[in-house]
Structure formats: structure tokens, C-alpha cells
Amino acid sequence: MKRRKFIKSCCYTTIGITLAGSFLQSCGSIYYASVSRKANRLIIAKSEFWQLKKDKKIYRSFVLIKPEGFEFPICIYKIKDDTYIASLLKCTHRSCELNVGGGVYSCPCHGSEFSVSGKVLEGPAETDLKTFKIETDNEYIYIS
Questions:
Q1: Relative to the CA of 46, which of 78, 130, 135, 144 has its CA 20 to 30 Å away?
Q2: Which CATH class for the 31-143 domain?
Q3: 107-136, pLDDT tens digit by residue?
Q4: CB within 8 A of 85, min separation 6: which ones?
């Protein structure tokens, strides 16, 4: 192996390891909440948005659920006090599963981006995401 090729290979390996580490770290922040179903509603406890880390209560801005019978997960974002938005993580362009992060949903297949409210920000998708009606009480979030 020539010196130049060796150095190039080492650089690519270092970059690849760094990117893989950051990708795996970001996946650690994805949390799938417990969900139950009653009649035609999905029920999630509001406490799913909180986690304990080193005896500190930390707030999650969103949680994912994967209800039985759904091909794609649903992301529930807490917008403000007792206001939530639930969107199906299925790209409206070619039906790829969307990634969540940075306050947007992004499609790994063709690059479409959506706001957390499900509106198209960047094409090629032209149709907004499917969103669900949400009701809340003191303890639970109800998705219809």
C-alpha cells in the first residue's frame, strides 16, 4: 500500500467512526412511549415526556409511538403547555419513514422536510403529513 493511499484510508476511517458515533448518539435520544388503545383512541401518559437523569427531571420535546396495526410510527410533539401535535412519520412523496430531529421531520430517501406541525418545508413532497386530532386531560393525551 502506498503512503498516500494509506493516509487517505486512515482519514476516511476516522471520519466514518466519528460520524457513526454521532449518529448512534442521536439515536439514543429517540424515545418510544408506551401506548394503549381504548375504542378508537390511542392513549399516552403525559409523564412519558419526562425522564430522570442523575436525579434530575428532564423534559422531552417529543416522543414516538408505534401503535399495533400502524406501519409507521407517530411522533407527538409538545408545542406549549398542554398543546400537542401528532403526525404520522410517513413521507407523502414516496412513503419512506421520516427521521425526527432539529425541530423538523426529514426524509432520508429524497430529502423532503416537514415542520413538526406536518407542513411541507422542502420538496419533492407536495402534500402535508397526516396529523391526528388530540385531546388531553390532567394525566393523558388522547389521539383520535
A1: 130
A2: mainly beta
A3: 999 889 999 999 999 889 899 999 999 999
A4: 76, 77, 79, 116, 117, 118, 131, 134
